[in-house]
């Protein structure tokens, strides 16, 4: 291998080993291409503002004087920004150093001489693939106003409008929907082109020799055919002969058929892609959550738990492989994804950080085996996340514990304890039932005492719950990890303590608001 080839390969290895280079390229890739990257949204907004500003300046310049500073900004600054974007997109599109290294190592493995020309050719081909793509061509045309001395090139400012398809998510969805019907749209385009060509030639042959006819050239004939088949019909060109009018009737009927066909294509494309677009929007909203609860399974128990969390103002995300359950969750106003909670692919689709965004995972499926698999999947992704699970059959408790479940709730055990405790005590049972019912308007609420709150409220007496007609059931002392029922008024409040109050929802909300006000 000669000195030149060795230098190129050494440079490629140096770039691959450079942490700063890789981090810089990764940053620009996220900024330009990764829709989940937080800064990309602001970058897209900035580019859209530049596009609308440049088009506004172009329109105003037609009849009004525009300051030289604005023209300089439009022709040079904006064009330079778009040029930098074009070059950056070309840079992050492919990794030339990796291509060179792969070719070198392949030749080395096959014990043949490394050909630098072949490797460079592969790298350039990758760049050319990007340059000939439609978005890249639009980006390049948007830079043309930089050569503002050629006035014709200033019209290319309008091509900047097409760049909106790159930044606006709704326009991206629209183009993706239409791209799924490429074959049908191409067939329609060919059909329309044939009809226009045949109709234009026929009308030209039949009308060009008639002195009364406004159609005198082949261009006039094509213009008339296009206007007629689109059912626009400006009326500036009308055939005067009977043969010409016969052609007009045929092309009018064909135009109606073309519009019907094109409408059916677009409607069917949106119908097929509607679920995918809805899911994409759902995932975008879920990824914005700073904290949320994952509820795996939306059966009867899952519905009650999710409804409770939702009423408390918590963000809830439902995962269920039953389509009917997902529809029910969506009808209840919850974010639900039709996916298997026990599959890693489901959480990859969800795209959230289990460690930082998920408060807890609730395994509420109707089978212990399903809950075990769900817990194993979650635990494989994160060792620290809190997992709670319902237990259907007592003999499966050990399996759930081995799967990494932190807290297990055995529903039959709870029912039995309640029945045993309140057998023969109908009034007490009715009171507990009233607290669980959503129709009574009475709720049990947990309120956390923070450090700033303890500066204004030192003891239980200063809470003044009686003023809001609430009942203080007790306090969970975080420092002692113990719950105190009916604490005495002089009980000191500490940061992290949780008070449990009972009362009407509106009064609890008013009490909570007063605590926040006293805290501030």
Task: Output the keywords.
alpha/beta; single chain; Rossmann fold; 6-stranded parallel sheet; Helix Hairpins; 4-stranded antiparallel sheet; 23 helices
In words, what does this structure look like?
The protein is of the alpha/beta class. It has 23 helices and 10 strands. Strands 3-2-1-4-5-6 form a 6-stranded parallel beta sheet, sandwiched between helices. Strands 7-10-8-9 form a 4-stranded antiparallel beta sheet. Helix 2 (19-33) crosses helix 4. It is extended, with a radius of gyration of 35 Å. The termini are far apart. 18% of the residues are buried. Residues 414-423 have low confidence and may be disordered.
As a percent range, the share of helical residues equals: 55-70%
- Rg, Å, rounded: 35 Å
Label the structural class: alpha/beta
Tally of distinct domains? 4
Tell me the total number of β-strands: 10
Give the overall silhouette. extended
Mean pLDDT: 81
Give start-end ranges of low-pLDDT stretches.
414-423
Strand order of the largest sheet: 3-2-1-4-5-6
Largest sheet: 6 strands, parallel
Beta content:
5-15%
Distance between the termini: 73 Å
Annotation field: number of helices? 23
Q: TL;DR of this structure?
A:
By secondary structure, the protein is α/β, with parallel strands linked by helices.
Secondary structure layout plus pairing:
Blueprint: H1 3-17, H2 19-33, H3 38-63, H4 68-93, H5 96-109, H6 116-131, H7 134-143, H8 159-162, H9 164-167, H10 169-179, H11 182-207, H12 218-229, H13 242-287, E1 292-296, H14 300-311, E2 316-320, H15 323-331, E3 335-338, H16 344-350, H17 354-357, E4 358-363, H18 368-381, E5 387-391, H19 397-402, E6 407-410, H20 411-422, H21 426-436, E7 442-448, H22 451-456, E8 471-477, E9 482-485, E10 498-504, H23 505-519
Helix pairs in contact: 1-5, 2-3, 2-4, 3-4, 4-7, 5-6, 11-12, 11-13
